[in-house]
Design goal:
- Chain B: This is CRISPR-associated endoribonuclease Cas2.
- The complex is a heterodimer of chains A (327) and B (87).
- Helices cover 48% and strands 17% of the residues of chain A.
- Chain A is α/β, with parallel strands linked by helices.
- Chain A has 2 domains: 73 residues, CRISPR-associated endonuclease Cas1, N-terminal domain (Ribosomal Protein L15, Chain: K, domain 2), CATH 3.100.10.20; 235 residues, CRISPR-associated endonuclease Cas1, C-terminal domain (Four Helix Bundle (Hemerythrin (Met), subunit A)).
- In chain A, strands 1-5-7-8 form a 4-stranded mixed beta sheet, with helices on both faces.
- Chain A is globular and about 60 Å long.
- Chain B is of the alpha+beta class.
- Chain B has a single domain, classed as Alpha-Beta Plaits, CATH 3.30.70.
- Chain B is built from 2 helices and 4 strands, in the order βαββαβ.
- In chain B, helix 1 packs antiparallel against helix 2.
- The radius of gyration of chain B is 13 Å and the shape is globular.
- The chains are: A alpha/beta (327), B alpha+beta (87).
Chain lengths: 327, 87
């Protein structure tokens, strides 16, 4: 299966002899184009239209990240799976408030249930029993929400309870989670989480590109003129499973240390070595397989994300009702 | 599946073979490529190579390994190329 590549060295990226060439000060590296599914660029790379044309032909999406590891944007090649029907249906499910609410509720349900499952994994001597119960109550109350805003509020509430458990799940005295801060994150754990979340967002976006769905129409996150939102919706479900557990593992195993960070204006940013470690670990996690009960075979987490997109496609085509992935 | 390709090609055609392999696999040494590949892409690679070799003089070998985890690689001396996905 084609795999994503991550570029951390500065240089020139170009099309050469029907493949991709990365020219850096340390020399030239040919990248096997037939085996690349997406390109993630973290460094200063020059590229030209000829390369973009080539990448379009090969259906390769490019994600850009800035100096601090924040997602900047993507080169999203011309859609190759065109389906007017799916787009119409997607819009219908957005514009019809009942239909939108149904999907949005499923995303929140998936996210919260996976949060509960994550908490359970760290629930030695019943220390979180009370909080798990309170998040469960939130899940039950989802059905009472009659507007997406109320869903968001409920989710935010449950998330606060979840984050309040973090400091006890972390077994390293150097790290403190406190509360969730963004743009920029105010401490190390928040920096890790922001970086890993953006990796997840782009991974989901790349998988959506391989379906008929339009990533601009999301349901929990309001569709607007600015950005892709469907990938954010799907990512909510996978964050506790893929991102949060990975961060807790890395910190508890002391693979990530306080020296992996540096101060920036108003916040904290990760050093390049730490970013690379996170990319490596995240990629391994995506390639990890689990047994899929319905398909009766091993499936990687990356395929699972794609299947989530297929499930949404089926739902909007009114083929099969959507149920979020629980892990 | 994981494939290691080695080739012994006469000089006039060797550049052509190199270019074909670069599209599908990672260069690890002179005349050696390796990497993860799907069955379909592997068939494409073989077809492209077939078109470019002289069957009576050149030789290409494919070592096919069903799962990447079955390969352990040790290197003595210089690591010339790598199969890493981070650049």
């Amino acid at each position: 299966m084609a795999e994503p590549i991550y570029i951390f060295s500065d240089g020139i990226l170009k099309r050469k002899e029907n493949t991709i060439l990365l020219e850096t000060k340390d020399g030239k590296r040919h990248i096997p184009v037939e085996n690349v599914s997406e390109i993630n660029i973290f460094s200063e790379v020059d590229l030209n239209k000829r390369l973009l044309e080539f990448l379009t032909e090969k259906q390769i999406i490019v994600h850009f990240f800035n100096h601090f590891g924040y997602y900047v944007g993507s080169y999203y090649p011309r859609e190759f799976l065109n389906s007017g029907l799916v787009i119409l249906k997607q819009a219908e499910h957005y514009l019809n408030s009942e239909k939108r609410l149904l999907l949005a509720r499923m995303f929140v349900k998936g996210a919260l249930c996976n949060i509960i499952n994550t908490l359970k994994k760290y629930n030695d001597d019943d220390q979180f029993a009370e909080r798990i119960q309170s998040i469960r109550n939130h899940v039950e109350n989802l059905i009472l929400c009659s507007e997406v805003n109320q869903l968001m509020a409920l989710e935010g509430n449950a998330r606060e309870i979840y984050y309040s458990c973090f400091d006890r799940m972390i077994k390293s005295e150097h790290f403190q989670f406190g509360s969730r801060t963004k743009r920029p994150p105010e401490n190390e754990l928040n920096a890790l989480m922001s970086f890993a979340n953006s990796l997840l967002y782009t991974t989901v976006l790349s998988q959506i590109y391989r379906t008929h769905l339009d990533p601009r129409i999301g349901y929990l996150h309001s569709t607007n003129n600015r950005r892709f939102t469907l990938n954010l919706d799907i990512a909510e479900i996978f964050k506790p499973v893929l991102v949060d557990r990975m961060i807790l593992t890395l910190v508890n195993r002391k693979q990530i240390k306080p020296t992996d960070f540096h101060q920036i204006a108003g916040g904290i940013s990760m050093k390049e070595s730490a970013k690379k470690l996170l990319v490596q670990t995240f990629e391994e996690r995506l390639q990890d397989t689990i047994h899929h009960a319905k398909l009766k075979r091993q499936v990687s987490y990356r395929s699972l994300i794609r299947m989530e997109a297929y499930k949404i496609e089926k739902h909007i085509l009114e083929d099969e009702e959507y149920e979020p992935y629980l892990g | 599946m994981y494939v290691i390709v080695t080739y012994d090609i006469e000089q006039e055609r060797v550049g052509k073979i190199l270019k074909v392999c670069r599209k599908y696999l990672n260069w690890v040494q002179n005349s050696v490529f390796e990497g993860e590949i799907t069955q379909a892409k592997f068939e494409k690679l073989k077809l492209e190579l077939q078109e470019n070799i002289e069957r009576s003089r050149d030789s290409v070998r494919f070592y096919i390994i069903s799962d990447k985890t079955l390969v352990t690689v040790e290197v003595l001396g210089q690591e010339k190329g790598s199969t890493s996905f981070m650049y």
